[in-house]
Amino acid sequence: MNKLIGGSIGTGLFVGSGGALASGGPAALVLDFAIIGFMLFNVCMALAELAVAFPISGSFYVYSSRFLDPAWGFAMGWNYAFNWLIVMPLESTAAGLVIRYWTGSVNIAVWITIFLIAILIINLFGVRGYGEVEFYVSIIKVIAVLGFIILGIVLVFGGGPNHEYVGGKYWHNPGPFADGFKGVYSVFVTAGFAFSGTELVGLAAAEAANPRKTIPRATKQVFWRITIFYIVSLALIGCLVPYTL
């Protein structure tokens, strides 16, 4: 469960939310993520039903080949592969940018190389080694998000060093929306990217001992936990940081 939750929380929340806030404003940020979350709720429920009724050992593109058309499944499989081939260097670059916030003396290419080598070494240990690393890294991400939510609530209600009550003042000035409908529309891209990974629960059916029992429960829990993490975190970010910063 922790691997599914942690695997779905990443660059979209930790890095992409800043640019989305600047282009859309706090209201657009929460609104767009809520809309995308509602859409993915329906997708995840449909995927869970398919995974329970027809558990497979491969990816979910098999469902498209079986129930729609083999060409559709072929295209979906390659699109999904290209998605993760692009995400890997993106995540490495984002990690390098985060580290460069504290130290700019080392070129970002060095950090990217270190991360890529680490990923290569982890994959050399097979599924067991990758699963163990993913488990602990996911726990760290979940704890980090929970810690931020607690800290954000404390800061919003005046528990910071200055004891200043923040509340929703940034929703009034500079305002809830940064660029009207254009700003709202632009945040959809970040929201869609941030929720990528929720489909991983469909792949867990092949590894579950009793998919009829575990997959529906896992799908509901993972989706709602991720949604709460995103919506609450982004609402707090909108309260603490003005989009004009």
TrEMBL record:
The chain crosses the membrane at residues 38-63, 84-102, 108-127, 139-160, 180-201, 222-243. One of its GO terms (cellular component) is membrane. This is Amino acid permease/ SLC12A domain-containing protein. It is found in: Membrane. Keywords: Amino-acid transport, Membrane, Transmembrane, Transmembrane helix, Transport. The lineage of its organism: Eukaryota, Metazoa, Spiralia, Gnathifera, Rotifera. It comes from the Eukaryota. PROSITE patterns: AMINO_ACID_PERMEASE_1. PANTHER family: AMINO ACID PERMEASE, GENERAL AMINO-ACID PERMEASE GAP1. The keyword NAD does not apply. Residues 4-244 form the Amino acid permease/ SLC12A domain. GO terms for molecular function: amino acid transmembrane transporter activity.
